[in-house]
User: Fold this.
Amino acid sequence: MTLVELTPGQRQLIDKIAKENGFKDHQVKAIIGSAKGDNYLGVITSVTIEDGHNKLELVLKSSHVGEIRNQVPIRKAYQREIFVYEQVFTKFKEIQEEYHISEPFDSYAKLYGTCDTESSECLVMEDLRESGYKMWNRKVPMNPEHISAVLREYAKLHAVSFAMKEKQPEAFEDLTQSMKKHIFDEYFHDAEKTTQFTDTVMGSIFRTFLDDPVTTEALKGFKERLPDVFDEVFKQPAKEVVIDHGDGWCNNLMFQYENQLDTTSPSTVRIIDWQLSKISSPAMDLVHFFLVHSSKEVLYDYENYLKLYHETLSKNLQEFSCDPETVFPYSTLLEHWNKVVKMGIYMAFNMMKIMLCDSEEAPDLTEISDGGKNIMDVMNFTAKDTDTFNTRIKDLVEFSIENEFL
Assistant:
């Protein structure tokens, strides 16, 4: 347990939260809240407020300082997440209550406070671990029960956007005006940076298929088409868009279980880290999450999982008095999936080595320095567990080729 000294601004915010929650003569303890490789665009600190009678366990998520801010849009990330918590979730809660949705989307941590000051950005939220929530072991594929649970939550999330667009179109337009661009949008339109990053990502994939010239040629064609894929995904979205999560890897998902000794099937899910949220096709959340977390067996059953997602989406849309067949029929979901699946494959290629690496070998963005390492240097690494990496990548590529996704 390593103690952390809060900045004066952070301590002021924590004291304000303590007062608002009825604490008197309270004590504050702060310790490091995550391991290297668990979080990349922030510093996680576990904070405990106590006054002898009551205790409140919180998570302080604060922004990096230094050269990293010149290479990564840190401020935009925190402004986006604060906006989602303070504005989007508030509006979503209101419309779901208005229509008495039986299973509303509320799968996010409780927010206690924020700071939007330049270079001191932070959010303070409930510590879900105190309620028994756990992360999935990122080194192994998720089982069908966890895959299904996450897809249902994404369906409930997306249903609110669709319903709000139908019932309150002007309010939805106002709410999403600042969310039409990805915070990394300028990076994806920088040809030099995009090429460097793509070379880094695809280099490890090509090494997996050194003895397979046929697949290598297919992957070369995939790489050549990536600029068009980026342009298609990041251009002005089409009609059927929602506010997405945008960062569906397992470290941004937490699971609670009715029986803590049996973690086969989660009872509830919480989705955390909304820094990459934007207006997008709902299929973007699906391909991002599904392709990188699924076993070979689950991958080949993808249509049944898409149907499960659409069943939940349809149920909630009907409770909003919306017709799913008009708003977003299953045939349109398949069209969206096919349109963005290449981006999902690329993201899975990028995320796989991050998910399989040990803590000590995980990229450390704080190593970025003026005149020293840049973000490309930091992200250019090879996970030690090459056997598992190669197996997972081969399964994904085989699946993608057989289904003509690549």
Summary: The first helix runs from residue 8 to 20. DSSP finds 15 helices and ten strands in the chain. The mean pLDDT is 93.
